[in-house]
Each structure stands twice: as C-alpha cells, then as structure tokens.
Amino acid sequence: MTTTGQHHTRTEKLLLEAARTFNSTRDYEDLMASVLRLALTAVNCEAALVFRVDHNRPDVKIRLLTDHASEPLVYRRPIGESAAGYAARYQEPVIINDVSSDSRVDFDIVGSSDVKLRSLMAVPLIGKGQMIGVVEVINKNDGEFTDIDLDILVGLNNQMAVAIDNAHLVRELQREALERKLLYEVGMRLAGALELDELLEDILQSLKQVVNYDVGGIFLIDAKNNDIDSIHTVGYDPGVDDKLHLKMGQGLVGHVAKTGTGVIVPDVARDPYYISANDDSRSEIVVPIKAGDRVIGVINLESKEYDAYDERSLSLINAFAAHAAISLERARMHESMMAGRKLEEQLNVARSIQQTFLPNLPPKVKGYDIRGSNVSSGQVGGDYFDYIRIVESQYGLTVADVSGKGVPAALIMASFRASLIAEIRNNYSIRTICQKVNTLLVESLDPGRYVTGVYGVLDSANNIFTYANCGHNLPFLLRTDGSVQYLREGGPVLGVTAHAIFEEQALFLNVGDLIVMYTDGVTEVFNEEGEEYGIERLVEVVKSCSACPCEEIEKRVYNEVRGFAARTHMFDDFTLMIVKRLA
C-alpha cells in the first residue's frame, strides 16, 4: 500500500475512533481528556493541550496531557501572542519545529508540567462555522511535525470542535438546571430557618455548591447605628476578627454596604478599598443583601485564584441574596416575637417586610407616565407590583397576586419576586421567563397554592409593550379612539401545571394610549345589592378621565371603588398600575 493510502487509512481509523469515543462521552471534562488522548495518538507526540475560548475573560482554561500521565493538568493562562493565540486569532494552523527561532512561542504555556518545548503544532477548532478553541500538540516523538500530521489533526478538527461545543452546551444546561433547582431548595430551606446563626451558616454552605470560594462571610448592618455589627464567616483565621468588624464605607464590604451595588474584584491587590483579612486571597466578590431599597447586609466571598468571579457569579449571588433578605428579615421578626410581641405586632412586621418589596417611586421613562400603587387592606396579603429596569429604554412591568392571605402568602410573593428578577437577569424572552418561574413554583409550592400575574416589557424607544398574562385578571389597553383591547395572551396560573406553555404578544402604543393592570382587590368589590364592581365599570371610569395624569386616574378609580362598596364589604389589597404614552 502507498504512503498516501496508509495515511488515508490511518486517518479514517482515527475518525471512526473519534466518533465512537465522542458519542459515548457526555461529561465535559471526560470529553476534553478524550480529545487530548486522541491528539497524542494521532500525531505521536509528547504532550497536547486544548482550550475553549471564553470571550468574557482575558485568559483561557488550559488542559494539558502528557503521554505518560493519566489525567490532564488544568490551569489558566492568557494566550496573548503565543502560537495558540495566533491560531485562535487568525483561524490558521501553526507548525513550529524550531521553537528557538519563532517569537510566537510561549514557553510557559505548558504550565507547571515537566514538558520542555522543542516543537509544536497549533490548530484552531472550528465547528458549525465557529472558532471555539485551539488544540496544540507538543514535541513530535519521531522527528518533526509534517503536513501529514497537520492533515490528520485538521481531519479530526470538526469532530473535536462539535463534540466540545455540544458538551459545553450540555454542561451549561445542566449547570443552569442545578442552579435553579438549588435556588428553590435554598429558598424553601431558608423559609424554615428562624435562628439567625443557623440561617447564616446555611446560606454560606448553600452558596458553596454553585460559587466556589475559599473564605467568605455574611455581614449584617445595624440600622440603628448604621454600622456593620453582626457577621458569620467561614475560613478566616480567628486572629483577624478585628479586621472583619467594619464601619459603613470601610473596606470592600463597607463600600458595598454603603453604595448598595455589588462589585467583582479580579485582583484584590489592585483595589483601593480592599482590606486584607486572608493572605491567600487573590480575587473577591461582594454583593449587597437588600430588603426593598434598604441594604440590610452583605455577602462577601474570596478566592485563592485571580479573576475567579464573573457576571454569572454576580447574578447567582444576587439571587441568593434575594432569598437571604426574606429569611433574614423573617429571622429578625422571629427574634422580636420570641421577645414577647403580640400577634398583631407580628403581622405588622410581616406586612412591613412585604411593603419593602414594593417600589417607592415610579420610574422616569421618557415619553411615558407610569403610576403604580398598593393600598393595604390591613391584612398580610400577596399582592405585588414592580418596575424592573432591564436595559436602557426597557422596563419590566409586573402585577401579581398570590392565592390566600397571611404570612404564607406574603412569603410566596417574596419568593416569586426573587425568582422573577433572577430569571429576568438570565433571559430576555418573556415566554421563557414565565415558563421557568412556573416550573420552579410547581416544584416548590404546596398543592392549592398558586400565583397569577402579568409580566410585560415596555420598550420606550420603539413604543412597544410585550406581555404575557399568567391566569391573571384581564389588563386592558384603552386606545385614544375609545376602543378597548383586553390582554389575554399568555398561559395558565403559575405553580400548578408542570411544563405549561406560555405565549407573548407585542402591542404598539400610540400617543395617549393607556394600559391598566390590577389585582382582584380593584374589581371584586360588592355593593349593598350584591353586585360586583367588575371590569366594565373599571373601563368606564378610566375612559372618563383618560386625559388626566395617571396619578389622577388612580385616585379616581380608588374613590369610585370605595364609594361603590357595601359598608360591610371586606376589602382586599388594592393594587393598580397605569401606563400612558405621552409623546
């Protein structure tokens, strides 16, 4: 058989071996190891490395395997102007058989291994039309790297790239599912914790499952003295306790407590706010714990690795902080109850907690008048409305209602709010947000519990409102010509039907158009004759004052509803949101 024929036969065998191996390997790390073993065998070399490009980081995670090792060495390194960097940037293979004569050779790319660079070949991994990474083979065992070696590696390129990309996607989906599941498990577990020390320990232990850290702590703020007075830490040397007791504005923890904005610090040595409490720390992430607009505490995590945290870490810890805020406020309320407060005081505290999750002021949106309000019935309920800034010129607007009354309904509302905000950060599709929130509520709510709601996004730049109605009272769009369009598109109530499908609809808003969203406390009001106020009366009163500012419309509706009600009527919470295009 000719040399060319032998080459083709060997390549075909390698392709078959690659297909068999990659199809049987689902785990991302196992797949990367398989890619390296295949590369070592394919070109008969001493070592091989592979990395996947991450456009959100300045460095890459390299996996290097030698022909005498069983497991890859894993480390991070910038690829810069190296041969691998050249292959990634220009999407062209590189062969260097004399490393001493080529300036692109990075002798440190082999990490802490015992490999001494003599020759290398780097090939970009391109699959589905995208460059996803680089595989580099090092030190040909039987001479120099040749065009035949390059043909073999390029022949395996597409299978390697597609397999890595698919495994990465599967890993991300699994990680996302784990994170969502863990968030709800944590929420439910924290809901049962009433002792503050137990609660703080549980929060830190749960965080460890999704965000790696070496030392960490939760710092609580004393509202009376405006100091950071209560802490629970993991991993710090007991001798540094004095460095952990901080004033507002002092250190990264104090800075975040004061500003209310989370920070990611890739290198603590370069941050002017950093106070060293652990000599091994290289990077840090600090996130505020908020109850409404109030910062009640701070979560602080530190790592021995540089640049250990990213926006994904920030989003996850923010979601944990939302759950933690609910539980911390409840734990403090419990301490007050144990001190001998009466039932009425307990309910007042719970109502106060609920009110912290409602916005104090409407957003200032160019060309729009937006007004939302919640008038308490005096009980602890489950009404909720919010304005959630997404990006420039886009606001998420929501009105929701939890089944039932009392503290359980308020806690479900708070959990629903945290879940909605977490999914809004991770997704842009309204239908996807509704489906994910529904799935997690189904898994966490007891039978008979559910949430109705409307969630929409106002795009003020394009004057479009896109919404989904999840089994809620029908909002309506009042056009300037007097026509009314009811907002029905969406799906069932949240938390009852697993795998429910939700749809969304986009509406163009003309100047003067009004959108009205409300809870049943507005329309399910009865007069002395037992007649319901209903949506028709609501539409008519809005029509009668549609030219007025939204605040005036809200007052008119409230007065009309109160005047309609029987003297013996037991009022529910009155929650209303009005959106009007001005220009």
What would you note in describing this structure?
The protein has a six-stranded antiparallel beta sheet, sandwiched between helices. Strands 13, 14, 15, 16, 19 and 20 form a six-stranded mixed beta sheet that branches. Strands 8-7-11-10-9 form a five-stranded antiparallel beta sheet, with helices on both faces. The model has no long low-confidence stretch (mean pLDDT 84). Helix 1 (3-23) runs parallel beside helix 4 (147-191) and helix 4 (147-191) packs across helix 11. A hairpin with a 7-residue loop joins strand 1 and strand 2. The protein has three domains: 3-172, GAF domain (Beta-Lactamase), CATH 3.30.450; 192-333, GAF domain (Beta-Lactamase, 2-Layer Sandwich), CATH 3.30.450; 360-581, Phosphatase 2c, domain 1, CATH 3.60.40.10. It has 583 residues and is of the alpha+beta class. Helices cover 38% and strands 25% of the residues. The protein is built from 14 helices and 22 strands. The radius of gyration is 30 Å and the shape is elongated.
Keywords summarizing the entry:
alpha+beta, Beta-Lactamase, Phosphatase 2c, domain 1, six-stranded mixed β-sheet, 22 strands, 38% helix
Topology (SSEs and partners):
Blueprint: H1 3-23, H2 28-43, E1 45-52, E2 60-66, E3 73-77, H3 83-90, E4 94-96, E5 120-127, E6 130-140, H4 147-191, H5 196-207, E7 215-222, E8 227-234, H6 241-244, H7 251-259, E9 263-265, E10 283-291, E11 294-303, H8 311-338, H9 343-356, E12 368-375, E13 383-391, E14 394-402, H10 406-426, H11 430-444, E15 451-459, E16 464-470, E17 476-478, E18 484-486, E19 490-491, E20 505-508, E21 514-518, H12 520-523, H13 534-544, H14 550-564, E22 574-581
Parallel strand pairs: 16-19
Antiparallel strand pairs: 1-2, 1-6, 2-3, 4-5, 5-6, 7-8, 7-11, 9-10, 10-11, 12-22, 13-14, 14-15, 15-16, 16-20, 17-18, 17-21, 21-22
Helix pairs in contact: 1-2, 1-4, 2-4, 4-8, 4-11, 5-8, 8-9, 8-10, 9-10, 10-11
